[in-house]
Amino acid sequence: MINFFSDYLVSSLRLSVPLAFAALGGLFSERAGVLNIALEGMLLIGAFTSAAATFYTGNVWIGVIAAICIGGLTGLLHAFLSVTLYVNQLVSGLAINLVAAGLTSFLSRLVFGGGNAQGIAGINPIRVPLLADIPVIGALLFRQDVLVYLLFLLVFLSTYILFHTSSGLTLRAVGEYPSAADTSGVSVQRVRYLAVITSGCLVGLGGAYLSLVQVKYFAEGMSAGKGFIAIAALIFGRWNPIGTALACLLFGATEALQLRIQALGANLPYQFLIMLPYAIALFALMGKKNRSTPPAALGVPYWRDGER
What we know:
- The chain is mainly alpha-helical.
- It is about 70% helix and about 0% strand.
- It has helices spanning about 1-30, 40-55, 60-85, 90-110, 135-140, 145-165, 165-175, 180-185, 190-215, 225-235, 240-265, 270-275, 275-285.
- The mean pLDDT is about 90.
């Protein structure tokens, strides 16, 4: 029973990691006032790029760096469209999602032949001596890979930066009152560019985790709506790094539960089990509709006086 519970917790954590990277990336973008619905496309692009780079070089860390870089470039594209060209942020994000789905599908057929990369090198877990043998906690916290430990660090580092530094205050001010930030000498455009590029880099890490750790191959459309669940987790966590990470853990636990129900051979249509994480995300958003207040300038383009 203890082993079953331990395995379930480990699976929940592993399934929540790409969600958490994506949601954390979305948090930086949206705290700066830029709606980032392109998390799904960024995840998919990061997963493909990391798999392709690892496939060609045989080095997983080159794959991780490539995913971060392509994620940042995708964030730069989103920032250019929405911040410089004032394209509707929702339309820009949806366009990136659609392009990512088609482009990764096309390129994967060129790179991997059949469209999928099977058996690429992956990132192995690190076993911490002595601590890894602790029942339940050992397997959960002390037998994880580098990206999981990096995620733990990023969650607490993001909390500190956002709420305890002048840079975090500037970022939040741009997302709440961009005109006031501009009046005080802050470049709203520059802050939003940096936030969206950072967002893309973090989401790219989530894509790398998907292909190099979680499954160790690339398949077309493998993000499977995780970017949208990350957006739900971001809202459910009230745009707070720790709350968002806990929301991702909830959704990861739900996905792990439906996989175990299927494995036990329950007499239920598998389609109902597959939709369970998305249903939980929907109910979570319904319960938070009156308590989650987004940044005041979220999704609103900012024009300086005389630019319109």
